[in-house]
Amino acid sequence: MDFFYYPQPLADLIAAFSRLPGIGPKTAGRLAFYALQHADEATGLSKAISAALKDIRYCSICGNYTDSDPCRICSSPKRNREILCVVEQSRDVVALEKTGEYKGLYHVLHGVLSPMEGIGPEQLNIGGLLSRLEGVSEIVIAVNPTVEGEATALYLARLLKPLQIKVTRIAHGLPVGADLEYADEVTIARALEGRRPL
Which structural domain range is residue 152 located in? Predict the structure, then answer.
């Protein structure tokens, strides 16, 4: 997008929007003009962002985003403290919680191993994981089934197995409603590996 035609503050606003993930230059321009035309909504958005940046922090136990420390999940007496689910990001905790099926605790890594991007074990919250294994009987690894996610899962499995803790991986395969004919080979292979009796 050519910013030459815009006043500098508007060009800066468009540029700021375009740096957000999934927002291209045209959408950034539409958002900037919308913000200018709807000042009350833009001011509310600005206040919400400022409040989140001020009040949200990492839980000192699990690494999830929280407004109280420890977070509500870590401090809940109703959670099963023998099971720990390891996820990539805080948004993964939300996805798992929405199912209502998992009753254990979480640990957020804040990424996955990616040597190409310079992300090794030291850049992830692995040290925090190792410091909270007392009383844990099972680690559920629930990172995404990407190349980096699989490398992270294997790394964690090798790290944890000597500690006599059961290490499991969430199943991967065909989503409900999917057609076999349109699924790729890796997805079908994973579905076959994760099959269970009826």
Answer: 65-169
